[in-house]
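Appendix B. Raw example, untouched.
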Amino acid sequence: MTPPVVIGIAGGSGSGKTTVLNHIVREFGADPIAVLDHDAYYRDLAHLSPEKRTRFNFDHPEALETKLMREHLDQLIEGESIEKPVYDFTTHTREDETETVEPRPVIIIEGLLVLAESLLEEQMDIKIYVDAADDIRLMRRIRRDMQERGRSIEGILRQYERTVRPMHLEFVEPSKREADIVIPRGGHNHVAIQMVMSRIQELLRLVENGALQS
């Protein structure tokens, strides 16, 4: 069986990872791409009180079930479908339903810490780090959390100061060293993104010709 191309996209909160991912999906279409977002694998906090959930450190690697994500990645690489968790960020719990993800020629792994986790990083053919200035990332995070997750500006800034920034400096920023490609200025650097597209096309040609082996 011809192995898929596995692409990792990492970067700080608000750096533009999703924008880069969307560029790739638009370029190649959704059909040949399976997406595993690390955010889907946050641990279910249903056993904690709402107050304790708000104090949970969501930016530490232990907040995510990376081992389960690796198991799902291996299944996709082997040509098996998986049931990806669905996470509710307003309640910090997993929903009962799951999302079926089918194996595809391209698998994209996206998330803050995917390059910081050797379980995931060692399976990647292309490692991308999306970079952006701290103030830009913070503004984007504020906008997202207020609009999509119903959070207050005070709560967002408190979390940023307490866990987001320290964990970024400890885990996310150092993972840039693992990247094959660093995209500066976030997800709107069209020249860098086109270079990524060219590399993906090159690897897909190798897959089609049977030259890329697992």
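End of appendix B.
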